[in-house]
Amino acid sequence: MRDLEFVHLETRENGVRILSLDRPPVNALGRELVSDIDRACARLEGDAQARCLVVRSAGRHFSGGADLKERQGMRREEVLEFVPFLGRTFRRLENLPFPTVAAVRGAAVGGGCELALACDLRILAEDATVGLRETALAILPGAGGTQRLPRLIGPARAKRWIFTARAHSAQEALADGVADRVVTAEALEHEAVRLAETIAAQGPVAIRLAKKAIDQGRHLPLDEALRLEWECYLGTLDTEDRTEGLRAFAEKRAPRYRGC
After folding, report:
1. How far is 39 from 112, CA to CA, in rounded Å?
2. Radius of gyration of the chain (CA)
3. What is the domain partition of the chain in residue ranges?
4. Beta strand pairing status for 168-169 and 129-131?
5. 168-169 sheet: strands from edge to edge
6. Which of 108, 122, 246, 229 is nearest to 181 (CA)?
7. DSSP structural state of residue 63
């Protein structure tokens, strides 16, 4: 199996992980880049020390979406194989047990927007443009865009985004709820990592279980969702981290969580 070629996975001691897309000029989502993202997710699934992941671009653009040159050369059977693989890869990223933050600069359109939507949080640079452009090519978002976007911002706004095929500015994305925050291009990396470090400093078991409760509970009837929340809460009760949190509070110091 070849090593990762078009993504770089950085491990930091504080539990922060950084996944950088590096397929110039626009990180077009062809077979090789998507395969590398999938392999990186497989490694992260087995990383017990990971507490938060930043997904970023090594270049000027987060991702310009599908590699249309490659797609033009695909037979119908190949498209039927590749697009579901793209969707499964984004789902694999979404299902990582710890939080993920997309740091978006430049273009994040089509599949690039769907990649950002598969992350838990999105910080955009002021120069970013985001949108689901597929209907302009007479197709529709096929890697989760028609499902994640309405769950995030509601069906009416999601329909406007998808039906018009517009690329939206960072401020428009913030106003519609796609972006959690907009910062200067110069500050993007710093702010994304600072957010990841803030998340990583909290109780790791609690963060993972909170993500599980939110993601798995949001589509359940309320009574079932509340039972799930309680089950997740019980998962924190007998941890060393919970004891450490209470002790640190009493001693008026920062807690030192170990994730157990």
Report:
1. 18
2. 19
3. 7-200, 204-250
4. antiparallel
5. 107-109, 129-131, 168-169
6. 122
7. B
Under CATH, to which class is 7-200 assigned? alpha beta
Q: Which of 111, 203, 245, 259 is catalytic?
A: 111
What is the per-residue pLDDT for 158? 98
66 is catalytic: yes
Q: Is the pTM higher than 0.85?
A: yes
- 103, 110, 125, 134: the catalytic one is 134
pLDDT band at 104 (very low <50, low <70, confident <90, very high): very high
Is 125 an annotated catalytic residue? no
- The reply to whether 204-250 shares the fold of 7-200 is no
CATH number of 204-250: 1.10.12.10
Distance CA 257, CA 72 (A): 50
Q: How many residues does the chain have?
A: 260
Tens digit of pLDDT for each residue in 120-144? 999 999 999 999 999 999 999 999 9
- Annotated catalytic residue: which of 50, 66, 125, 167? 66
Q: What are 17's strand-pairing partners?
A: 11, 53
Secondary structure of residue 189 in the 3-state scheme? helix
Within 13 Å, how many C-alpha atoms sit on residue 219's CB side? 7
- Give the three-state DSSP class for 179: coil
Query: How far is Cα 34 from Cα 137, in angstroms, rounded to an integer?
Result: 21
Q: Identify the weakest region by mean pLDDT among 26-35, 44-53, 128-137, 248-257.
A: 248-257
Catalytic-labelled residue, pool 114, 143, 144, 213: 114
Long-range contacts of 30-33 (CB under 8 A, 24+ apart): 30/66, 30/67, 30/70, 31/67, 31/70, 31/82, 32/5, 32/6, 33/6, 33/7, 33/67
